[in-house]
Specification:
Helix content: over 70%
Radius of gyration: 16 Å
Shape: elongated
Number of domains: 1
């Protein structure tokens, strides 16, 4: 399992309790198990989840841009 980047650790530390709970609820099972086994802190787990979600968002944006590009080509 990877270590969170400092940028995301900082972001995780600035989250409210409610925002932290929401991120914990969306965590993947592997991360959840590590947290339960105390192999990482809550802040580290939340930071990794933030990283994962940012990566997924970037991938989604790239796919949407490609879909829009192809859609424009077809309509032209």
């Amino acid at each position: 399992m990877r270590k969170p980047e400092d940028e995301y650790l900082e972001k995780a530390g600035q989250l409210s309790e409610e925002e932290t709970e929401r991120l914990l609820a969306r965590m993947r099972s592997k991360l959840t198990r590590r947290l339960e086994n105390r192999k990482m802190s809550v802040q580290e787990a939340v930071a990794i989840q933030l990283e994962i979600e940012d990566e997924e968002l970037q991938e989604w944006r790239a796919r949407m841009a490609e879909i829009r590009k192809e859609s424009k080509k077809k309509s032209t």
